[in-house]
Structures are given as structure tokens and as C-alpha cells.
Amino acid sequence: MFDRIARVYDRMNSVMTAGMHHRWRERAAELARVGPGSTALDVATGTGDLAIALARRGAEVTGSDFAPAMLEIARRKAPGLSFEEDDALHPSHPDGSFDAVTVGFGARNFADLDRGLSEMVRVTKPGGRVVVLEITTPAKPPLSWFFRAWFDHVVPQLGRIAGDPDAYTYLPSSVRRFPAPEELAARMAAAGLVDVRWIVTAGGIIAIHAGTRP
């Protein structure tokens, strides 16, 4: 599915978020606390936007994904970065390889969320950061009403225009299944992180979690 939508993925992200997704990725990169001399892994990197945000802070970045068509676009956008075909549930890197490990809008696609979080922690160095940027479901009206109308009706229609209605019907269903911020924080702690904190932004539809590997 992700290979199918690769050619429209960036355009659809900009349409669905009014271009705000870049700002959210920059905030996630800030919480990763990387800089010159740091190493970072961005799993489920897609077309590489979060990897690029990390690299802007001076880090040496690797982006990984299991969708070759997505990676092809990422390599065209950022030829100076390293992009590799890999599975977030079975990353090929040794324990403690990176100062930060991130995922942007990909954790809800993990077939096993707890396994994915544990693997992100495993490849993070002690003292390093794990950051999860994800869509969350607002609980209070009127934003909750707008959110449901947008994701349940408008987004699938946009998907039909883009030529892949199934993919953009999957999007709202994947968001509904994803844990609320409090539960995700608990699962990140269970995966081995300490000092797990999160911010909710964009009126309650975006959550960015960060924790430290002890």
C-alpha cells in the first residue's frame, strides 16, 4: 500500500495538514536532542521528512523503511543522507547504535507496537532519546466533531481523487486504533524508557512523545 501511494504521499500530507506536518517534524527533531556529532535513526521514514529535519540539526542520520518506492523519493529529496530498506520490527542495527531513534506518523502502522517500541529502545544508546510523533484523536468537542468529519469523510474522498481510496480509508481507521497519549507513554515506559513525556499540539490532534534510554 505504501509503495502504491508513494508518488502522492508528500502532496497528500501537505493537503491534509495545511502544510503543518513540517513544523511538527521539526518539533520532534528538537525533542530528539541531536546535534553535530550525533547519530540518529528514523524508522518508518517514508519519504524522509523527519530524517531531513534531524539532519538539519547536524546529526548523521539513517532513514529506514520497508517500502522501496518511498525510499526512492527520500533519496531524491536528500541525496546526502543514508536511506536503507529495513523493518522497524526487526532492525538490522546492533544494540546501542544511535543517540536518537525517531518515528514520525509510522508507529500506528507497526504490526506489533510493543515490539516496535522495544526495538527502537534496543538500538538507542544509553542516555539517548526515543521520539514518537503521531496523530491522536481529540476527546473534546468541537474539535472532536471536526476531526471525525475530516478523517472519516474528507480524507477518504481526497484518497479517491489521489487514486487510492483504500489507503486513505486505512488512515482514519489506523488513527482510531492507536493508543491515547497516556497509554502510549505507559507502553514506551514498559519498553524500557524513563522520563517519558509528551506534548499535544495542533488543537489536540498531534502528540509527540519522548523518553530516554537509561
Given the C-alpha coordinates, what overall shape results? globular
What count of domains describes the coordinates?
Answer: 1
Q: Percent helix among the residues?
A: 40-55%
Q: Quote the CATH topology.
A: Rossmann fold
What is the radius of gyration?
A: 16 Å
Count of runs of 4 or more consecutive helical residues: 8
Structural class: alpha/beta
**Widest beta sheet: strand line-up:** 3-2-1-4-5-7-6
Number of strands: 7
User: Biggest β-sheet: count, sense, barrel?
Assistant: 7 strands, mixed
CATH architecture identity: 3-Layer(aba) Sandwich
Q: State the name of the first-level CATH class.
A: Alpha Beta
Indicate the topology.
Layout: H1 6-17, H2 21-32, E1 39-43, H3 49-56, E2 60-65, H4 68-77, E3 82-85, E4 98-104, H5 113-122, E5 124-135, H6 143-162, H7 165-177, H8 181-190, E6 194-201, E7 206-212
Parallel strand pairs: 1-2, 1-4, 2-3, 4-5
Antiparallel strand pairs: 5-7, 6-7
Task: Give a nutshell description of this structure.
By secondary structure, the protein is of the alpha/beta class. The protein contains 8 helices and 7 strands.
Give a verbal description of the structure:
By secondary structure, this protein is an alpha/beta fold. It has a single domain (18-137, 179-212), classed as Rossmann fold (3-Layer(aba) Sandwich). Helix content is 44%, strand content 23%. The protein has helices at 6-17, 21-32, 49-56, 68-77, 113-122, 143-162, 165-177, 181-190; strands at 39-43, 60-65, 82-85, 98-104, 124-135, 194-201, 206-212. Strands 3-2-1-4-5-7-6 form a 7-stranded mixed beta sheet, sandwiched between helices. The longest helix is centred in the last third of the chain and has 20 residues, at 143-162.
